Predict the 3D structure of the following.
Amino acid sequence: MNKSHVQIIWIDEDERNKEEVLFDSLKELYEEVVFFKNPDEGLSYILENIDKPMIVILDINMPQINGHVICSRVRENSKLIPIILFTGVNENNEPLSDFIDNHVFAFIKKDTDLDTIMAKVKEAEMLLVTQADGLIEDALEEWLQIQENRNLDEPLLIQAGGRSYSINEILDEVRLKTPFGRTFMKDVVSLTIDLILRGKRNLP
């Protein structure tokens, strides 16, 4: 099974989490699962790699800087990164207004069963893909607007079966979210993520 290119960044002062089944389960599905005991180091890593596709798993009560501060700092730099609060704190006893304001993806207690936690992580990954789909469609629209001397009805892509697609046809397929359009966007996302992780391009 191919592993996802999305990074999992886990920040928690309790290093024993690395010995839990959850950590191993994440490593089975994701190429990079990076654990930080030191929250300052974890935050620095996120900010230095802010353009890479990642999901942040975050404890709330930690020394030096807590989850509230990390959420705010991440959101100052990116609105797209899903943040999952994974904590032993009772959400009824924790002020959550700033987490709501910072669009935290989920609040999960540490005693939640493994299947529920993994399902929520997969939901976060799908959110990244959905956001990427919208960005790709917007990028195609913007690209079309500056193609003054190009025939957008000329065949651009030819499938193995001989079916050809022009730029306009590809864009229509993407807009309509047909099987071809979905596959095209998925392939573009995979290629983009691969190029980013290989350091071929820094996104704005």
Remarks:
- The beta strands are 7-11, 33-36, 54-58, 83-87, 106-109, 155-158, 164-166.
- The two ends are 32 Å apart (CA to CA).
- Helices lie at 21-29, 39-48, 67-77, 97-101, 114-145, 167-176, 179-197.
